[in-house]
Amino acid sequence: MQEARRLAEGTPFTRADLHEAVMLGAVERVRPKMMTVVAIMAGLLPIMWSTGTGSEVMQRIAVPMIGGMVSSTALTLVVIPAVYTLIKGWSLSRAGKVIVPSLS
Questions:
Q1: Is residue 100 part of a domain?
Q2: 77 in any annotated domain
Q3: What is the pLDDT of residue 102?
Q4: How many CB atoms lie within 10 A of CB 56?
Q5: Do 49 and 66 touch, CB atoms closer than 8 A?
Q6: For residue 88, with 0-12 CB atoms within 10 Å meaning exposed, 13-18 middle and 19 or more buried, which class applies?
Q7: Is pLDDT of 103 > 50?
Q8: What's this model's pTM, rounded to 2 decimal places?
Q9: For residue 61, is it within any domain?
Q10: Cα separation values, 84 from 9, 18, 89, Å
Q11: 28: domain range?
């Protein structure tokens, strides 16, 4: 969206625009992701703490699901935006669209 708007205006898409777009996108994903994780964890945690008949089997099913929810949250909110920023920033630099300031 940012890049399309910049192209329509005739101005180049910069690293600052990239950073702003990634931050806005990550912030928009926090609420739906956390709602999903909390709902699933609320259902799985009682299974983890159960002691009745068949609880050992259910716990073996619930543990990987809880781990998956924790890792998918970290992946969605931290890793994917960071990797996207690195790749997109690299492609901007290669295309010559971004002028990287020199130290001299």
A1: no
A2: yes
A3: 44
A4: 9
A5: no
A6: middle
A7: no
A8: 0.68
A9: yes
A10: 24, 10, 8
A11: 2-95
